[in-house]
# Entry
Amino acid sequence: MSGFAAQAPSGVVMIRPHHFTPNPETAADNVFQSADGFRTRGEIAEAAFDEVTRMAGRLREAGVTVHLFEDETTATPDSVFPNNWFSTHAGGHVAIYPMFNPSRRRERRSDVIEMLKQRYRVQDVIDYSGLEPDHVFLEGTGAMVFDHIGRIAYAARSNRTNEVALERFCTHFNFEPMLFEAADANGAKIYHTNVIMCVGTEIALVGLDTIVGEARRAEIRARLEETGRIVVPLSHAQIGEFAGNALELRGSRGRFLAISSRAVASLTPAQRESIEAVTPLLALDVPTVELAGGSVRCMLAGIHLAARSGAAASFA
# Structure
């Protein structure tokens, strides 16, 4: 797989929740969560369902293959964020991850893994969920932001990103781990790396000010720049608007950056110009889903696998 294709997948998995609600279990360490005191629980769930439906439709219109699964249960309030429990990698590799909160462990679905095996060339599935009884967690591409071209896994240490699990994953999947400390403007730990960092083929959006330590901050910027990427620094305020929570995808007209409308509105004209010089922006409205503390990137599990020819069409 070429570097061009490696960083920007052309297929994604999405989960459409029928009973969405911000998860009180995860609020303790996710400062990005917020409450909605104006709508009923049912209205919030309906709005989230509609946002996922529209987002999937717009991605399909852009030429992205979207595998949309339904979650009709009430047991998995964060199921709209499937990127945390599994990831896929070139060469036919799939990883399943240990999750910090018990309610999130129920999000793992055998039908999603079976679809991947049927539609794509999967060589092996490595399941790290057995680390949970030892309180060792690594929440997928929430915990790690991959440079698939340079083979680097950027990771902010938190309750959801354990150093031992990170080292084990990187050994198995041939990534160099770059672990760092990150905090918001009030000193609270960043719960997931993908809210402060987006690495595309030619550009990286990074909340550099969240990275603790001037030397480490400079080192991470240098690693991004040495691969030829344009680094767009994001402020604490922009990180709070989910400007770092974006994902580069490849559609029928080439690469583009999937990002929320709220995030786009927070960008300065100069930042937009830098981004759009190398990749168009696709702004997606997901304000209800963002109540749960994640945005567009969290809603997308990218597929970095080779498709099978004549794959069964029974999986949407």
Q: What stands out?
A: Residues 41-61 form the longest helix (21 residues). The chain has one domain: 3-302. The chain has a mean pLDDT of 93. Residues 227 and 282 are 24 Å apart (CA to CA).
